[in-house]
Design brief:
Layout lengths: L5 H13 L4 H20 L1 H5 L2 H5 L4 E10 L5 E12 L5 E7 L5 H17 L6 E6 L8 H15 L8 E4 L6 H15 L19 H19 L8 E4 L4 H12 L3 E6 L3 E4 L6 H10 L7 H4 L4 E4 L11 E3 L9 H9 L4 E3 L8 H9 L3 E3 L1 H4 L2 H15 L5 H25 L6 H19 L4
Parallel strand pairs: 3-4, 3-5, 6-7, 6-10, 10-11, 11-12
Antiparallel strand pairs: 1-2, 2-4, 7-8, 8-9
Helix pairs in contact: 1-2, 2-5, 2-17, 5-17, 6-7, 8-9, 8-15, 8-16, 12-13, 15-16, 16-17
Bound molecules: NADPH dihydro-nicotinamide-adenine-dinucleotide phosphate (NDP).
Length: 448
């Protein structure tokens, strides 16, 4: 991936200078700019309107102190973030990540990606992301609640059902969303759909939990079909064992594939007979334990320490569903050598630029995150609609809408890749289709 256009190169340099020490954010901007070269050449009006200069600068960045007290009465201080990136096409929307690796650059890369992803969903949602360097692992329920309430004591000022609607992400599941939503309601004294991923008893949407993983497989199915392939009989690797990974594994299996490996941040399991997802759900969703425990259910399976080893297992389709930059150039080379034909991304930016180059050099069909994992936020959009209507749709209704949305996302990527002379490059297609809609809206709204 190399940018040749002088205007884009200059803007990238300026963006680097303005955002030092944030490699993940620069990586995300570089990838988008690489795809936008033909757009910049064709749409001088968007360049003249300063859309690109504005799109790489968040509308608002909020950083705050999050003090909380543990079960032994000891005070801890974490840092909280909310980056409201772009509201051109709708209220800010994007999840909250709780992980020790979180800093401003991670939240900015995620917020930037979210702008294009939300645009692709066809729903009216702007882009944002938030989070904290708090580590939920090993904390009691009480400590999690203390943290979430303290986080919301600041966040509530900046969000609202028509302004900014957060959701889950790594480390933020139904439990954390519940605590944050409860505190918001208490502080504002109003019940509104200010969060998505809520529990079903209090305004959550059926199929939201499954949506990112299912949506990933719906998108991948479309992409496979367009290339005369299917999931049927294929060997699949799914990294991670969190929300996205579990439901990607379930849907891929329903589509006739055999998922043979999953992982967490300590290591991976390989079960040549196909992953027993009930066991994984029990370990991860109920007991909140490590993936290694899988051997207690299936002693014949293998466990290996370290995360990247999962990509050395021969497969037809790889679905990275853990975290950013989990597949590097080396791992991508091994995947290709072992016959992998498709990589479709459940996690955000799981492939390094070197890995993406390997996919293209080796003819691997590549489904980029901002399109392939957009089913989660799309269903969050459907949750917002249900909250506004004060209605709950059935699982089947939401799932049908999700299927339709993933189909249209693939179509948009495919058509944009053809229109701009890069047929089959769905990364370029996703970046271009996502960008054009936001850029037109920004231009129409003037210098804001
Ligand atoms: P979860 O917290 O539910 O699960 C994350 C999984 O990834 C866990 O198995 C975790 O292992 C593993 N993981 C986290 N960090 C690392 C690491 N550094 N190395 C290896 N494995 C790691 O998160 P989600 O499933 O919600 O999110 C996964 C990815 O999908 C993220 O990139 C997220 O941004 C993206 N995404 C999520 C959406 C959603 O709806 N939830 C929507 C769109 C994208 P461990 O338990 O050991 O930490």
């Amino acid at each position: 991936m190399a940018i040749k256009n002088a205007y884009l190169l200059d803007l990238l340099e300026r963006t680097k200078k303005r955002n030092p020490g944030e490699p993940e954010f620069i990586q995300a901007v570089t990838e988008v700019f690489t795809s936008l070269e033909p757009v910049v050449e064709k749409r001088q009006d968007l360049v003249d309107a300063g859309v690109l200069e504005r799109i790489v600068e968040p509308e608002r960045q909020i950083m705050f102190r999050v003090p909380w007290v543990d079960d032994n009465g000891k005070m801890h201080v974490n840092r909280g973030f909310r980056v409201q990136f772009n509201s051109a096409i709708g209220p800010y929307k994007g999840g909250i990540r709780l992980h020790p690796s979180v800093y401003l650059g991670i939240i900015k890369f995620l917020g930037f990606e979210q702008v294009f992803k939300n645009s692709l969903t066809t729903l009216p949602m702007g882009g944002a992301k938030g989070g904290s360097d708090f580590d939920p692992k090993g904390k009691s329920d009480n400590e999690i609640m203390n943290f979430c309430q303290s986080f919301m004591n600041e966040m509530y000022r900046h969000i609202g059902a028509d302004c900014d609607v957060p959701a889950g992400d790594i480390g933020t599941g139904a439990r954390e969303v519940g605590y944050m939503f409860g505190q918001y309601k208490r502080l504002r004294n109003e019940w509104v759909g200010v969060f998505t991923g809520k529990g079903l008893q209090y305004g959550g949407s059926l199929a939201r939990k499954e949506a990112t993983g299912f949506g990933l497989c719906y998108f991948t199915k479309e992409m496979l079909q367009a290339n005369d392939m299917s999931f049927e009989g294929k060997t699949v690797l799914v990294s991670g064992s969190g929300n996205v990974a579990i439901y990607a594994c379930q849907k891929a299996t329903e589509f006739g594939a055999k998922v043979v490996a999953m992982s967490d941040s300590n290591g991976y399991i390989y079960d040549k007979n196909g992953i027993d997802l009930d066991a994984v759900k029990q370990i991860k969703e109920v007991e909140r334990k490590r993936i290694k425990e899988y051997l207690n259910y299936h002693p014949e399976a293998e466990y290996h320490e370290g995360c990247s080893g999962i990509w050395t297992i021969p497969c037809d389709i790889a679905l990275p569903c853990a975290t950013q930059n989990e597949i590097n150039g080396e791992s991508a080379k091994i995947l290709a050598k072992n016959g992998c034909k498709v990589v479709s991304e459940g996690a955000n930016m799981p492939s390094t630029p070197e890995a993406i180059d390997e996919y293209f050099n080796n003819g691997i069909i590549y489904g980029p995150a901002k399109a392939a994992n957009a089913g989660g936020v799309a269903t969050s959009g459907l949750e917002m609609s249900q909250n506004s209507l004060r209605l709950s749709w059935s699982f089947e209704e939401v799932d049908e809408k999700l299927k339709g949305i993933m189909k249209s996302i693939f179509k948009a990527c495919d058509e944009a890749s053809k229109e701009y002379g890069m047929e089959g490059n769905y990364m370029a297609g996703a970046n271009i289709a996502g960008f054009i809609k936001v850029a037109e809206a920004m231009k129409a709204q003037g210098n804001v």
